[in-house]
Structures are given as C-alpha cells and as structure tokens.
Write a structure and sequence with these properties.
about 160 residues; Aconitase, domain 4; seven-stranded mixed beta sheet; about 35% helix; globular
C-alpha cells in the first residue's frame, strides 16, 4: 500500500480520533467525516484513499471504543504507523481489520506529505520521499488472517 503520510504527535487519544459527540453514529461514512476533526477540522478533506497516519507514542490512548479505528479505516486510511499504540486501540484496530505498525525509527523519519509504502507481507516500510526503508515485526499469522479478512467478524464468518 502506498500513500501520503499524515503525521500526528504523541498521546493522540480516541476522543481526538473521533469526538465523543459522534459515538451514537453507527454509519461508517458518517464516522469517517468526523475523523480527527478536533485536531484538524479539514483533515478528511485533504486525505485520499490509501494514505497513512504516522504518529508518536501511545496512539489511540483513552477509552476502549472501537469507533476510533473504525472511523480511521472508513476514512480510507490504509495503515497507521506509530512509535507505539495504546494496547486496547491496537487490539481494536486488528479486530476491525485496520493494519497498524509499530516502527519507531520510521515514525521519527516520516513527515507530513512524504510518500510512504507499507508492505505487510515483507514487514517493510519505505519512505519513498527520502528513500529510507525500515523493518518492523510481522504480525502473528492469526492477526494477519484477521486483517486480510477485513476484521474479526469477517474472519469468523469465513471459518464457518
């Protein structure tokens, strides 16, 4: 997957990813319209399908709501790369089929506007703007299968 990087800082919490005032929304497209709006109200107008969020430490901290990774995925973001993730966000992202990658060196290297390529199969992330390539830990086979299925519910349905 190749896209433009959008960089956010440390401790981006789930209320910043999707404000609590939209938690009664279940429509994916409507959730996507409000992704990151309290950080940048025009962000969803700037992004394109396949783009990548890059963040600092503890991305997705805060509440355990699934709305946060759901709205990121619904907005068309192909992957989230961070120095680290809040554990519950990490699990929720996998459960909804949103690829997330912990890669501290890449998260430091990449700037907003850089073009990046994430190859989950090869466990590499390349900053196409600088030419630097980074390796990250591959997903466990079960997690990879969940992501490839588009989320846990799809994975379970396919196994029946």
């Amino acid at each position: 997957m190749t896209g433009t990087a959008w960089v956010f800082g440390d401790n981006v919490n789930t209320d910043e990813i999707i404000p609590a005032r939209y938690l009664n929304v279940s429509e994916e497209a409507e959730l996507a319209r409000h992704c990151m709006e309290d950080i940048d109200p025009t962000w969803v107008e700037k992004i394109a399908p396949g783009d990548v969020i890059v963040a600092g430490e503890n991305f997705g901290c805060g509440s355990s709501r699934e709305h946060a990774p759901r709205c990121i995925k619904a907005a068309g973001i192909a992957c989230v790369v961070a120095r680290s993730f809040a554990r519950i966000f990490f699990r929720n992202a996998i459960n909804v089929g949103l690829p997330i990658v912990e890669c501290p060196p890449a998260a430091v290297d990449i700037q907003t506007g850089h073009r990046v390529e994430v190859d989950l199969a090869a466990s590499t992330l390349t900053n196409l703007t600088t030419g630097r390539t980074f390796r990250f830990e591959p997903f466990a086979p079960e997690m990879e299968a969940i992501i490839q299925s588009g989320g846990l519910m799809n994975f379970v349905r396919r196994r029946r």
